[in-house]
Design brief:
alpha+beta; Jelly Rolls
Length: 276
C-alpha cells in the first residue's frame, strides 16, 4: 500500500513542478511597456498608462509595482521631456515604445523610474534598438527616496565607433569609479536586442547577457558603488533609439524544490497511515 501512495505522490509532484514553473521572468515586481490600448499594462481607458505621441515624463500611472512615475531630465537638470516619447514606431510589443534621443544643447536625455528597493537577487530585462552613434548608459542603483539616486549598482552601455559598436559593462570595486570592460558582444544598430541583468545585492555582484548570450567575465562583475539595496532603473543617452518591455523581476522558488517538499510531507502522512 505504501508503494501505491509513493507512486501517487510522485505523480502529483511532477504535476506541481510543472505548474509552478511560472513566468519566464519569475515573479514580476514591476514592468513598463509604454503602451496605451494594447500590450503590457494596456487598458481600455484612453491615453493610459501612456499617450502615444507624447512624453513619458510623469506618466505610467496604473502600471502596478512601481514606486514612481517615469521622470525625464536633460544635461543634469530639468527639461528633455520632448525627447523621451511614447511612440508606435518604437514598439517591440503592444502599441507603444520609448523613443529617446539627446536634448539639443544639453548633451543627453535621461529617463528614470523607481521600484520597491531590492536587497535580494533579482533581474532587469529590457529590449533596445539604437543607432550606430553616441552612447546609451543604464545604471540601476539605490534610490532612497531622494531626487538624485545614490549608490550605483551594475552599469552597462552601448558604445564604439560606427565599425565597432559593442556592449560594455562596468566591473566595479565599490569605489564609485567606472571600470569598463568590452564584452565582445556586438550592438546590432537598427535591430532589437534583449538585455538581461541578473543582480545579487547581497554579494554586490551581477551578470550580463544580450539575446541570451552571457558575457563571460574573467571574474565576477562587481557593483560600481556599495548600495545596500537597488530601487531605481535609469537610461541616459547621447544616442538615439528605442526601449521597450522593461521588466523588473525576482526568481520564483524552484518548482522542483517546492514539489519535493510536498513529496516529503505526503510520504510522512502516508507512512503514518500505513502504520496504523
Amino acid at each position: 500500500m505504501l508503494k501505491s501512495h509513493i507512486a501517487a505522490v510522485l505523480s502529483f509532484a511532477a504535476i506541481a513542478a510543472g505548474a509552478m514553473s511560472g513566468s519566464a521572468f519569475g515573479q514580476i515586481i514591476a514592468q513598463s511597456g509604454f503602451n496605451d490600448n494594447s500590450g503590457i499594462n494596456s487598458n481600455p481607458a484612453p491615453n493610459t498608462p501612456f499617450t502615444i505621441g507624447q512624453t513619458i515624463h510623469n506618466r505610467g500611472e496604473g502600471e502596478t509595482g512601481w514606486t514612481t512615475l517615469w521622470a525625464v531630465s536633460a544635461g543634469g537638470g530639468t527639461g528633455g521631456e520632448d525627447h523621451a516619447l511614447a511612440l508606435a514606431v518604437a514598439a517591440r510589443e503592444g502599441d507603444g515604445g520609448l523613443q529617446i534621443d539627446p536634448t539639443p544643447g544639453r548633451g543627453n536625455t535621461r529617463a528614470l523610474r523607481g521600484f520597491p528597493s531590492q536587497s535580494r537577487s533579482f533581474s532587469i530585462d529590457q529590449d533596445i534598438n539604437f543607432v550606430a552613434a553616441g552612447e546609451l548608459y543604464s545604471r540601476p542603483g539605490q534610490g532612497g527616496g531622494v531626487p538624485e539616486p545614490i549608490g550605483t549598482g551594475p552599469q552597462w552601455r552601448i558604445t564604439g565607433t560606427a565599425g565597432d559598436r559593442h556592449f560594455e559593462v562596468a566591473d566595479g570595486t565599490g569605489d564609485q569609479i567606472d571600470h569598463w570592460e568590452n564584452t565582445g558582444i556586438a550592438q546590432l544598430a537598427g535591430q532589437w536586442q534583449h538585455v538581461t541583468l541578473n543582480i545579487d545585492v547581497a554579494t554586490q555582484t551581477w551578470t550580463f547577457a544580450v539575446d541570451g548570450t552571457p558575457y563571460k567575465a574573467p571574474d565576477p562583475l562587481g557593483f560600481t558603488g556599495q548600495p545596500a539595496s537597488i530601487g531605481y532603473l535609469e537610461y541616459l543617452t547621447t544616442s538615439s533609439g528605442w526601449i521597450d518591455s522593461v521588466v523588473v523581476a525576482a526568481p520564483e522558488p524552484s518548482g522542483v524544490i517546492v514539489a519535493l517538499g510536498l513529496v516529503f510531507a505526503a510520504l510522512t502522512r502516508s507512512k503514518r497511515s500505513c502504520l496504523r
